[in-house]
Specification:
With 262 residues, the chain is an alpha/beta fold. The protein is 42% helix and 20% strand. It has one domain: Vaccinia Virus protein VP39 (Rossmann fold).
């Protein structure tokens, strides 16, 4: 599971739940633009613990089908109010043109073949339907100031890369969607720069994760403690600036008779 040992899974699942809660306000407008409220059948690829899937169930007028490759995640997603099954996004077990909308959230970041996943999502969506990647980060564009050159490298993608992810997933969305034959719109799900108060709340929620990530990347405890002290001091002084670009892509599948497909 994203390069994590079995004993790390419960903490990771809790972090996903907190992350889903904190980013709900970013996803909901994208759901409306993708036509989810009018959809009869929606696929949630990489449903994970079900935290995001619950929002889909509340939004969609029809039915939601959640799939994930990880059985531990599916076990935790039980009870979210939709059908769940185990499947790999690179080979979806559905006929062509089955769903009105197919959605994924923070999935392509961890996929070894994201272009194939998007192609599969496009295949199983009906003509005129949509594919939505609601949030894909691009850690190569992550900004911290005041800077800490060595530690910033970890948060700018090295930590994700070490776990098998693609830290530049966000910038590749348009390419994947256009290659799948979708009429594509790409944008930023979040435009605002965090205030120091918001940044502090994020830090507190993720402190344990940050410490583990830095330790995995070779930083000893004293170095991590110094970084924490410097970070908190800059927040207290109102100087810290943090920004992580989160991209979305909405792709419409052409209907017969469309002049073009991109």
């Amino acid at each position: 599971m994203h390069g994590r040992a079995l004993h790390e899974v419960p903490a990771f699942q809790r972090r996903l739940d907190r992350q889903a809660e904190a980013t709900r306000h970013l996803r909901l407008p994208l759901y409306e633009r993708a036509g989810l409220s009018r959809a009869g059948l929606v696929l949630d690829l990489g449903c994970g613990s079900g935290a995001v899937t619950q929002d889909l169930v509340r939004t969609v007028a029809g039915q939601v089908v959640g799939i994930d490759v990880d059985p531990l995640m599916l076990a935790r997603a039980q009870g979210v109010g939709c059908a769940l099954s185990r499947a790999d996004g690179r080979q979806l077990p559905f006929p062509d043109a089955t769903f009105d909308v197919a959605i994924c959230n923070l999935v392509l970041l961890w996929s070894p073949q994201p272009e194939r996943v998007v192609a599969e999502l496009a295949r199983v969506v009906k003509p005129g339907g949509t594919v939505l990647a609601s949030m894909e980060p691009d850690y190569g564009g992550k900004v911290h100031f005041p800077e800490n050159p060595l530690i910033d490298l970890v948060f700018q993608g090295e930590g994700v890369r070490r776990r098998g992810g693609d830290p530049h997933a966000g910038r590749k969305l348009r390419s994947h969607f256009v290659a799948a034959g979708l009429r594509t719109e790409v944008g930023l799900a979040a435009h605002d720069v965090l205030t120091p108060e918001q940044d502090l709340a994020v830090f507190r929620r993720n402190r344990g994760y940050y410490r583990r990530l830095l330790a995995e990347n070779g930083f000893a405890a004293p170095a991590i403690e110094r970084w924490e002290a410097e970070y908190l001091e800059s927040l207290s002084a109102g100087q810290q600036l943090s920004f992580l670009p989160l991209f979305y892509a909405i792709g419409r599948k052409p209907v017969p008779g469309d002049v073009d497909s991109a």
